[in-house]
Write a structure and sequence with these properties.
heterodimer, A: four-stranded antiparallel β-sheet, B: alpha+beta, four-stranded antiparallel β-sheet, elongated
Chain lengths: 185, 148
Amino acid sequence: MAPRDPMVSKAADWHRPIWARFWRDRRGAVAVAVAVLLPVLIGFAGLGVEVGWWFWIQRQNQSAADAAAISAALEIAEGVTTNASAAAIIAANYNLFSTSPPNTLTVYLCFGFKVGSACNTSGSTGTPNAVQVVLTQPLNTTFANFITAIWGPNVNTVTITTTAIAGISPPCAAPPPPHCVYLAL
Amino acid sequence: MRRLHGPRDTGAVATEFALLMAFMPLPFLAFGIIDYGEVMAQATNLTATVRGAAEYARGAVVEGGISALPPGSAIASQLNTGATLTTASFCTCADGTSVSCTWTCSVSGDTRVLQYVAVSGSQTFTPLISATWSFPATVNARTVLRTR
């Protein structure tokens, strides 16, 4: 078998067209392979980093949602139901959650709440005995956007949603007795 | 003998790949991701620790008043964490303006003073390639909970 010296094989096919010679030229083949594979490697590494970041934001927002629910529940326990949303917003802001758009903070009053059950917002009788706070924060995606665009509609935003419920166990005269307000979820 | 002295390209691809990798950002990418993962793990752990500490501090203050607010070091030893914790409290009126805790507010007839406890935590982080990436040298977290 003839030695595979690149210069020899190069000289042997000098008469071929330039694209055929480029195709047959073995020099630098690994560089080409790496150049093709590197965007894929960086893309998936970046996706891993990005998804980790989403979960971290979710953890931070969970603390903010809990604090907001406790604060809103205290307002109801102290008989100032109209101020529940304002108190929730202040508490969320203290915990590094920005309530300016596109982020949202919604306060739901729960009636007949029991630990382990969902928040029933359409109760008819009595006063609410729990407060549910829902935070949403849309995040713009970078790597997830590129990678999902490969096979279908690209995901250019991911919405981080966190929920917290704070219960109120009556009697809750102002100032509330210890543990009148408890974190239920 | 011909195999020893003649031209051979066995292993050339591996050599070429190794040379390319030496000049490529891939090793930095790999170590950078390890560092990033470590920062994320520590930040998540610290956030959870500070959250627990804040609920502990809130419970203590709700039971025993603001004088019962435990120092951060006491909570840190309770939670068996290496992070440095600090506790503080502050008061606001219903509209969020900061006031002294002995103040009497007046926000459209609302005279209440709202009291909060704040727990901050920090711990140092040593990245593998600190000279290349400017990761934060400390990881921080803070939780604020209302007590009344």
